[in-house]
Known about the structure:
The complex is a heterodimer. Chain A is mostly beta strands. Chain A is built from no helices and eleven strands. Chain A has strands at 5-7, 10-14, 19-24, 31-37, 43-50, 55-58, 61-66, 71-76, 85-92, 98-100, 104-109. In chain A, strands 2, 4, 5, 9, 10 and 11 form a six-stranded mixed β-sheet that branches. Chain A has a five-stranded antiparallel β-sheet with strand order 1-3-8-7-6, with no helix packed on it. Chain A is globular. In chain A, 35% of the residues are buried. By secondary structure, chain B is mainly β. In chain B, strands 2, 4, 5, 6, 9, 10 and 11 form a seven-stranded mixed β-sheet that branches. Chain B is globular. Chain A binds chain B through residues 1-2, 30-31, 33, 35, 40-45, 48, 50, 88, 92, 96-103, and chain B through 4, 31, 33, 35, 40-45, 48, 50, 58-59, 88, 90, 92, 97-100, 102-108, 110.
Amino acid sequence: SQQGEEDPQALSIQEGENATMNCSYKTSINNLQWYRQNSGRGLVHLILIRSNEREKHSGRLRVTLDTSKKSSSLLITASRAADTASYFCATRAAGNKLTFGGGTRVLVKP
Amino acid sequence: EAQVTQNPRYLITVTGKKLTVTCSQNMNHEYMSWYRQDPGLGLRQIYYSMNVEVTDKGDVPEGYKVSRKEKRNFPLILESPSPNQTSLYFCASSSPSGRGETQYFGPGTRLLVL
């Protein structure tokens, strides 16, 4: 079963614009992670936010976490063509299981 | 270079012909895992291993076997592949024991079962 559900499923923006995608989950978590996947390639970890954190930054990435709403958002600022990829949220609940959502496909047009 | 490797990267086979997909990591990670990725279903965990000789089922273990005889290797075995196992497979590893840590993914193995 999918713990995380990303929204929107697909996003198309112009280079330089910001891209925002959301992730909702169902059960309590220890942390939430965002990954990027270029077409047909392996996933690459972007950022991890723990359940006691509300916001985290890494370069052009900003992640927020609202545990009361069981949701997270990933913002990519000043997008580049190289940001074109699929983005997945993954939640880690008690134990070691990491559960992935279905992903958001982002297309950044030059 | 720290990495997770998988072989083969692409494989076409026929129903019932046993196959093994190898996975190896050079980061001394305790935790390793196999996922399959299908359109619209995201990544689903097949099996995982907390350490040598310790394996457990994930969400979709049917039709698969794994073994963990050495820390660095975690092969995925399909004893009798069927067309519904056509998918993109990823191996991943992390440490310590996967708790709270990020996972490093291999490049993927694209499998077609005819």
